[in-house]
Amino acid sequence: MRLEKLDHLNGSLSAPYFGRIDFEEQFPNIESLQNIYIGKFGIEDIDSREIIVVDWRSPIASLFYSFNGGEEPVSYESPDGFVEGNIHLKRNIVIRNQTLDRVVDSYVRGQEHFEGVSDEFLIYRLQENKDDKLKDIVSTIQEEQDKIIRSPKNMALIIQGVAGSGKTTVALHRLAYLLYHYRDQIKAENLIIFAPNKMFLDYISNVLPELGIGRVQQYTFYEWALEIIDFPSKIKVHSIQGQYEKWFKIGDDQLAITDVSTERYKGSLQFQQIILQCLSTYEEHCIPDMDLELWEGKILSRETIHKWFYEEYQIFPLMIRRDHVTKRITRFKNSELKYIDKGIQKKLKSQANKVIRSYFKKWTAFTAVDFYSEIFSKPSSVLSNITLLIPEIIKQETKKSLKNKELHFEDLAALLYIHNYLYGIKSDFKYDHIVIDEAQDYSPFQVIVLKEHVRNHSFSILGDLAQGIHSYHGINDWKEIRQLFSEEETSYFQLQVSYRSTAEIIQFSNKIISFSEQSLLLATPVVRSGQEVSINHTPKEKLPNKIKNIVEKEKNVHSIAIVGRTDEECTKLHRLLSEEGLQCHLITSNLENYDGGISIVPAFLAKGLEFDVVIIVDVDEEHYPKNELNIKLLYVACTRALHKLYLLYSNNPSPLIS
Ligand SMILES: Nc1ncnc2c1ncn2[C@@H]1O[C@H](COP(=O)(O)OP(=O)(O)OP(=O)(O)O)[C@@H](O)[C@H]1O
């Protein structure tokens, strides 16, 4: 704790605070006017205990974020109850390396041009070029974001936010808030963030220590599942990347996303119900239907074993219960043997052991994979009626995979669910809070599994349906997730303002997403204007040169993305550009680090990232025909840009931009 505190103090040395409010508590006495300085970490005088800077997460600092201007009294909730008062000043301050860089008053009481809180400081921050990694936003958190960040812990928050509305950022700040506010109840090690891939985790990795929450666990769902289930080495478990080629290819054989696609089916509530029925039926029938006669005349009745299993050991998961019953039977046998004449003891012992072995052969011990195989390959008579409900095509496909010793990403939710039912959840895998970023790509079944791993349904579930490019296994509507929680357990928020891009880029992207058949929330820009989106016809052979020219023109920015449509084409373009002497990183699905600079990235991998300048290539009829997947892919690509967006096409432009 001391080391952590020292770390915070060192950080505060170079930038102690970023804001000030002058707050007059509502007493008649004007002397109660306090100048409150707000920083990333609180600082107090070690001798006098006087608070010099308050932590941004403290109750009083909430006024800095929730204050909307005007002369009406404001209030905040302190540990002793609500405190009311008036704000006289709201000031933003930029300090870098102990140098005061900028001071902007966004509200001064009594001055006419400050009727509301001005956005000048926010716009100044948004105009900056970003470096490689995501940054904290403590100095400019907006009111609607602050409400989410400060929501109570024992709630499943579901947040639909447009591209660039700060979902990822808000989720990380929420973790910092929870750790501050509930410091006696939760530990950083017991919080976990799920993100789409390792590169994305690297991209957000800087914010965590900046916010003082470096020890939070970070995982992809795939890696996490592999930590829990010990798969036999002969089984290959394919990650989600295995699906990319199938779903993101171009040409006439592009797949349509339907409800009976294997991925969607295996993530559905319907499938979870079937698995649950199989498990509970197995539970009902697993004990062999017989008494256990250890030796002649020594019978352990079926009823006694039932009582042990269904009543005494009921709190344990199935397989642990089976172990307990095994041990109990052995104890019973040993204690009974004590009364047996020494001369025949040995003989009866070996006879009893044989009987016990044969008894437990009839009582199958399953691993998750065995049970899953049983469902698909050779269901026992009690299960076969239930498995009839699984569509035949999915059954056949899965049976074939299992025969080839292969499992796929979409099988993981069911496998984890079975594993938890059979073996329970170890305390290492129980969490105080779970963040699911890009949650539109999660299936209801995945969320059901995660719900088993979190205490008090404490979730932050964030996503954007407009970016649902993985809807072959994700959701189409938040109802699919909301229905998994009761009304009191959940809260739903919408974030509609996009902070990432200029107004021009947002308006352009909105036009593209409006082609979608879904009714989706459109983004509203913060009034930050930039250059018009540039659309250029560029013949194929001139593409490398054109890209080089744009890069040359934009050489002063920190990050540029060249976005292609498929993995293969990006690799090709990367080679071509490298031959032309342009240094750039190719982002592939198994990349673990994000290096910034100039990147070449397929649209489906760009999700979650952002770049000062984005150049989208091949925006033509062939690569982006008008269908749901391409609308969303192009929307994702466009909304990655902060300041400038270029679209290049050869032949005929895509109908989405023509
Ligand atoms: N209140 C804010 N003040 C300053 N910058 C902000 C604010 N909110 C968000 N941003 C910035 O907007 C950008 C987008 O944030 P973030 O990546 O968290 O959004 P997102 O909703 O997760 O986006 P997407 O869904 O497109 O991945 C980031 O650069 C972030 O710093």
TrEMBL record:
Keywords: ATP-binding, Exonuclease, Helicase, Hydrolase, Isomerase, Nuclease, Nucleotide-binding. One of its GO terms (molecular function) is exonuclease activity. PANTHER family: DNA HELICASE IV (PTHR11070:SF17), UVRD / RECB / PCRA DNA HELICASE FAMILY MEMBER (PTHR11070). Residues 140-502 form the UvrD-like helicase ATP-binding domain. SUPFAM superfamilies: P-loop containing nucleoside triphosphate hydrolases (SSF52540). Its EC number is 5.6.2.4. ATP binds at G161, V162, A163, G164, S165, G166, K167, T168. It catalyses: ATP + H2O = ADP + phosphate + H(+); Couples ATP hydrolysis with the unwinding of duplex DNA by translocating in the 3'-5' direction. This is DNA 3'-5' helicase. Pfam families: UvrD-helicase, UvrD_C, UvrD_C_2. Gene3D superfamilies: P-loop containing nucleotide triphosphate hydrolases.
